[in-house]
Structures are given as structure tokens and as C-alpha cells.
Amino acid sequence: MRRLDVTRERKNCFVPTSEIIAVEETDLNKKQHNSGKWQKMAKPHAFTVYYVKKARNHRWWCSDVTFWCVDEQLCNQWIQALKELLELQKARPKQLLVYINPYGGKRQGKRIYEQKVAPLFSLASISTDVFITERANHAKDNLFEVNINKYDGVVCVGGDGMFSEVMHGLIGRMQKDSGIDQNNPKAPLVQCNIRIGIIPAGSTDCICYSTVGISDPVTSALHIIVGDSQPLDVSSVHHNNTFLKYTVSLLGYGFYGDILKDSEKKRWMGPMRYDYSGFKTFLSHHCYEGTISFQPAKHTLGSPRDKDSCRTGCHICRQSEQQLAEQRKKCGLKHEEDEEEWKVIKGKFLAINVVNMSCACPRSPKGLSPAAHLADGSADLILVRKCSRFDFLRYLVRHTNQDDQFDFSFVDVYRVKSFQFTSKLLEDNESDVTDIGKKHFGQFCRDHPACCCNIANSTWNCDGETLDSSAIEVRVHCQLMKLFARGIEENCKEASRNQSRVEQLL
Ligand SMILES: CCCCCCCCCCCCC/C=C/[C@@H](O)[C@H](COP(=O)(O)O)NC(C)=O
Ligand SMILES: Nc1ncnc2c1ncn2[C@@H]1O[C@H](COP(=O)(O)OP(=O)(O)O)[C@@H](O)[C@H]1O
Ligand SMILES: [Ca+2]
Q1: C-alpha angle with apex 163: 160 to 169, nearest 5 degrees?
Q2: DSSP annotation of 85
Q3: Ligand 2 atom with the shortest distance to the CA of 204
Q4: More reliable by pLDDT, 270 or 34
Q5: How far is CA 224 from CA 94, 121, 125, 351, 458, in A?
Q6: Could you tell me which residues are beta bridge partners of residue 351?
Q7: Ligand 1 contact via 205 beta carbon (within 6 Å)
Q8: Is the CB of residue 215 below 6 angstroms from any atom belonging to ligand 1?
């Protein structure tokens, strides 16, 4: 058996079976066997191996190599043997449910799926049921109705908002089927074993970027095909024993909440709306007063100021998960967290960000918390206190460069497992319901007219969805769900060399 690789002039190449996408008999009418040597072959037979090719910056693409020979039986034996090897890859999905948001990002979701993703799924013999949404919450509602057991995974084509919708559908469905009341903030939630794949077609695509290392539809499709699995922490957000939302990336009050609220009115601008609203929100420089309380995450070895980040096979995530499982075993049904200390901080803040992952995205390649972990059962609480516009700009600029964004006197960061916030406005209203004057005294701080402190509340930016609540309770649920991803690889080339290999003979 000989390999023909005239274009690349490489002598040999190694592909781990786990990275073979498909093996097919080659249609010789389509394929030009234009090397002089092979043209002499009487009646050639050939098969093509499609495999994952790893490029720079975590980008994957589908490459192929064709093998030719004169012996038809030998050719078929190779095809058979390679197909049997692929059958052993049990983590690969065979049947997927796909939701496409045709209005996300630059409104290219449907085209991206049809042109870049569907051909790869079909090459990999994955069957799909495709659902194009017609309204917000369509996918979420549908997930409560479908026969979910039929599928090995759910794929969402869209941005963070669309992912959030699908995640709410899946987690909600799981709890409903298990009789868990989502309104109980202390209820131990049931893990969601059906993986979600994200085909990025939104505006920020932070969840995809932070879990794969790049926002690229082909790369994401290939991670789905090879059956990758990345556990993910999910935080639940409640108020007064009422379930509000789940979040996996950013839960932001103040700056990021205001940007999102303003940008929703400018959807027609596409992803540019965030730059426009970002600039406007930066100039308005509103700060918000309130009380924050949180329980530090003592079970994890990591800290938000670590130099190392969460990478594929992260040992901190593994250790943290084991630690939490042991604690749970020891405490039985008792809630260990009830006994742990709460830290309380009062103040005026420009931004309160709770991030479950780094929140890296093309705009901020390291993210809002570069050392946050995907699956360690903790979130990073970042408090940006009231400061000058110039200082806030310095902080924002550090989202985009290599400098330490926590190295400012007005920025504090904590690794937490639960968190609560109540706005000053709500506290005042609750403690002094008769003082209605405050509520009607315009938008800004009455005591200090020059102060930027906003008497109105901000809103929460919950994975790109607005959430209006001036008091919330947040709890991190370790590894509640799984994605078709593997986290960010340390060094793509190294990682591929270390895996088991199938040698392609010369
Ligand atoms: C002067 C320098 C300014 C630098 C600003 C740096 C901005 C960094 C933005 C990081 C945002 C990461 C958090 C991700 C949030 C997404 O969930 C959300 C929604 O994303 P989607 O539109 O659904 O894809 N997008 C935004 C901007 O709030
Ligand atoms: N067919 C639809 N029409 C309108 N909105 C939709 C539709 N399908 C989904 N959505 C909603 O659109 C919002 C934003 O979608 P997303 O894909 O995240 O795009 P973007 O990244 O541009 O915000 C989500 O909240 C989702 O619920
Ligand atoms: Ca985490």
C-alpha cells in the first residue's frame, strides 16, 4: 500500500485514531491521480483518510490523505480495519440535535452551519435533526418536549446568549425529569450528561473561545466529531427562593450589565454594538452602591492571581472536584456551606463581575480572569471600586494586553463558591419604606451632586442575557454540565504527538 502525497511532498505523517474523522473508498473518477508513477498502474484502487490537522492558535481543520494500490482486496481490508478502529471510539456522537439562531451575530448562523459544519457531520456519519429557531426561547422550550434520550448531544449555532438558552433547556429538563425544584437554591442539582457543542456564530462567543481556544466553526465541529468532553461549572442565580438563571461565563453588574442593556437596543449594528455601547457606558462612568457577601472557595488549590491558566486535563480542576466530593460524603445531607464563614464588603462599584471561566474572547484574549478554571467548582469575584475614568480605562486596557489587570488598588479579586449582592437602593427601601423621597430624587446621588453614584440600579449581564434583580444569590455547581471541547491545549503539536498513533505506511 502506497501513499500519494505529491502536493505536500512529505515523506510520512502520523495521525492518532482519535483524530481520524472518516475513512472512505475514493471515487477514482473524481480524484486525479496525476503522478506519473501512478498513472502507469493498471487498475488502481484507493481510499481516503480524513483527519484533524492542527494549525496555529488552536485552529483545527479537516485534511485528507489518499492511499492507492492495485490490489482491490488489500484496499478493502484497509478500509475495513480503519472503520473498525473508528467504531472503537465510543465517545463520538452518532445522533445530534442542532439548534440554529439565524439572527445571532452577523446573522450568518444558518450559512455557517450549512456550508462549514453540516458537510463535516455528514462525512463523519453523524445524523442530525436541525431546528432553526423562530423566536427567543424557542430552543429552550423545545428541549422540554423532545425525546432527549435519542441524542448523544445538542449543538447550538449562535453566540453566548443562544448557548445560555440551550443550557437552560437542558439543565431545566434534567431537573424536571428528576423531580428537583430549581427554585430551591440549596437543592443538589442533577448533572447533565448530554454534551453541548457550540458552533460560534454570535457576537462575543466567549464560552466557545474560553473552552476551545478559538472561535471557529470548523474547529468546534471537529471537537464535536471526535467526541471531546469538557466538564463545566455552572452557577445558579436566585432571589427570594425563586430561580432566576444559570450562568457559565460572566455574571456582571455595573459596567458589563449597562453595556448589554444599552446594546440590546442596537442589535441592528451586529457585533459592533458592543463597541458603541462600551464607549458610551465608559463615558457615563456610573457606579453602584451595595453589599456583597461571599464564601471563599477553600476546596481548591488555585488562586485568581496564579500565573498558570486552566488547560486540557487541568489537575486543579480534578483535585477540586475530588475535594468537593469528599466534603459532600463527609457532610451527608447536611449543607457544609451553611457552617462556613461569609465575608461582607460594602461599597461603591463600577463593576462587579462573577466569572466561572476566564471569559477570554477575541476582544480580550486572556479574559476577565485569566487564571479562572473551567471545572473547579469556584468562580472569581472581581470588584472594581469607584475610581477615576482614567484609572478605569487603565483597567479596561489591561483586558487586552499582557499586564496584570488585578494589580490596581481599586480592584479586588476573590475565588468564591457562593456570592450574594443587594443594592443599596433595595436595602434602603427595605429598611425605610417610608422614605419615598429618595426614590423620586432623580438619578444621581443626592448627598453629593458631583458624585457619579447612580441611585437607579444597574442590570446583570448573565452570559449575554439581561437580568433585572437588585438582589441575587449565586452558588457554583461543580461540573454540572459537559461540552464537546477539551479545554485549551498547552501546545497543540505536543499534545497530538503524545497520543496513541496509527502509522501510515510509506
Ligand atoms: C478601551 C479598551 C476597552 C477594552 C474592553 C475589553 C472588553 C472585553 C470584553 C470581555 C467580555 C467577556 C464577557 C463576555 C460576555 C458575553 O457573554 C456577552 C454576550 O455575548 P454574545 O453577544 O451572546 O456572543 N458579551 C458582552 C460584551 O457582554
Ligand atoms: N429566531 C430568533 N429570533 C430572535 N431571537 C432569537 C432567535 N433565536 C434565538 N434568539 C435569541 O437571541 C439572543 C442572542 O443570540 P446569540 O446567538 O447569543 O447572538 P449574539 O451573540 O449576537 O447576542 C438569545 O437570547 C436567543 O435567545
Ligand atoms: Ca470555575
Answers
A1: 145
A2: H
A3: 21
A4: 270
A5: 10, 9, 12, 35, 38
A6: 254, 384
A7: yes
A8: no
Please calculate the CA angle 116-121-125 and round it to the nearest 5 degrees.
Answer: 155
- Residue 115 is given by DSSP the state I
**65 touches 96 (CB < 8 A):** no
Tell me: pLDDT of 503 over 50.
no
**Residue matched to cell numbers 457577601:** 293
Asked whether 151 and 95 are in contact (CB, 8 A), the reply is yes
pLDDT higher at 13 or 266: 266
What distance in Å separates the CA atoms of residue 307 and residue 275, rounded to the nearest whole number? 29
Specify the pLDDT at position 35.
54
Ligand with minimal distance to 462 CA: 1
Among candidate residues 269, 211, 158, 219, the one with its CA nearest the CA of residue 21 = 219
Indicate the pairing of strand 343-355 with strand 242-247. Answer: unpaired
| Residue ranges lining ligand 2, Cβ < 6 Å | 101-105, 133-138, 158-162, 165, 202-204, 464-465
How many Å is the Cα radius of gyration of the chain?
26
The CATH architecture annotation of domain 235-329+341-478 reads Sandwich (2.60)
Boundaries of every domain in the chain: 17-92+490-505, 235-329+341-478
d(CA 11, ligand 3 centre) in Å: 44
**pLDDT score recorded for residue 291:** 97
Query: Which cell numbers in the block locate residue 415?
Result: 475565588
The end-to-end CA distance of the chain, in Å, is: 8
Residue 419: closest CA among 355, 358, 347, 483: 355
- Distance of CA 359 from the midpoint of ligand 3 (Å): 11
**Euclidean distance between CA atoms 110 and 115, whole angstroms:** 8
The residue whose CA has the least distance to atom 5 of ligand 1 is 396
What is the enclosing helix (H) or strand (E) of 221? Answer: helix 217-225
Of 5, 64, 160, 306, the active-site residue reads 160
Answer yes or no: are the C-beta atoms of 479 and 490 closer than 8 Å.
no
Q: Is 306 a catalytic residue?
A: no
Q: Is 258 close to ligand 1, i.e. is its CB under 6 Å away?
A: no
DSSP characters over 337-399: HHHS--EEEEEEEEEEEEESS---BTTBSS-SSTT--SSSS-EEEEEEES--HHHHHHHHHTT
**Residue 502 CA, ligand 1 centroid: distance in Å:** 42
